[in-house]
Amino acid sequence: MNHIRRLFATVATLAGALVALAAIPATLAMRVPPPGEGSGIAPPPPPVRVIAEGGMPGWQITLIAVGAALVTAIAAVFLDRVLAARRSAPSTTA
Fold first, then answer.
1. Tens digit of pLDDT for each residue in 22-73?
2. In 3D, which of 4, 16, 2 has the Cα closest to residue 75?
3. Nearest-CA neighbor of 77 among 10, 26, 32?
4. CA proximity to 26, closest of 61, 54, 67, 70
5. Which of 3, 51, 76, 85 is the most buried (most CB within 10 A)?
6. Within 1-94, where are the H helices?
């Protein structure tokens, strides 16, 4: 039973890290015009007003995802150690 719990904690941690790492390419994506349209020189992007238009920069989203993966990994290790200490504690009943 201990192996199943440890395996589950490992899989959950790896899944969280994979989700966090999967968000990185999306944050680095750029808009590319289709071939054959325009003069080949892209116009400069419009100025971005984050406060007026809302939204969140991609690096912040990535930072939140990586932080969530780290918190999940730390919680899984902590929970595993608490359960292991509980199982290995000697019984004091006579």
1. 877 776 777 766 666 655 566 777 877 666 556 778 889 999 999 999 999 9
2. 16
3. 10
4. 61
5. 76
6. 2-27, 50-53, 58-88
pLDDT (0 to 100) of residue 23? 75
Burial tier of 89 (Cβ tally within 10 Å: 0-12, 13-18, 19+): exposed
Candidates 62, 60, 69; CA nearest to 15 is 69
pLDDT for 75? 96
Contacts of 79 (CB under 8 A, 6+ apart): 9
